[in-house]
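Bit of a strange request maybe. I'm writing a small parser for structure token strings and I need a real example to test against, not something I typed by hand. Could someone generate the tokens for this chain?
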Amino acid sequence: MSFRAMPADRRRLFQLLGVHPGPEFDAYAVAALLGSDRAAASRGLDDLYTDNLIMETTPGRYQLHDLLRDYAITLAEGLTDADRRQALDRVLNYYLHAALDANSYLPRYQALTMTISTTPVDTPYIRSAAQACQWFAIELSTLTTCATRAAAAGQPHRTVHLSAVLSAYLRVMSLTEQGVRLHNTALDAATRIHDRLGQGYALNYLGVVQRLWGELDAAKHNHQHALELFEQAGDRLGQGYALNDLGRVLRLEGAFDAAK
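Reply from user aminoacidic:
Good idea to test on real output. This should exercise your parser:
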């Protein structure tokens, strides 16, 4: 009844919330869903909050009650395939772009060469490592869900990219369990589309978190497999990363000559 009584623009916003991949959302993500700016998204969220259709978990962050989320997902199925696909594409693009921006403030030992064709209208203000870590901590659950959703929605390249972008944060924070899940998801996605480089980087990132977890045999195997894929693809930068990480594992095993 509340939905039917709302103006058309508010109904569309509630409907599009059924497309959002994660458990929580803010005005930046909603702006991406709508294809609008943050100011318009904030007004829409304020209206839904006033209507008691969304809950504010922390200042500026919202979620749907489980039953209302199920209803929003049902309503989203009523969108045209193109409309639903474009909304999902915009919000996945937003999260990837924001994550890439935040990643630039974290210590990295591997360069990211990906490009994103479309820049969101509004993105969070991140200008330091502390702000980047805070943003990643808040959005990690949504980002990993985005990676899984992208693979299921026929956008495996976004899954591979999210794995790469999140690798630095997961390593810095020693979030090994999340890293293993994410990089395995990316590996599966890259394998399905025969993306040799994507497989190589996912394997190498997986090896890094396995080394941090103490699973040296698994890490060594994945770095060696990654090296083979990089050699087949002629990616010398990737070969350098794989050899460097393989050397770290061998050194931990006490194989110092081989590590050289």
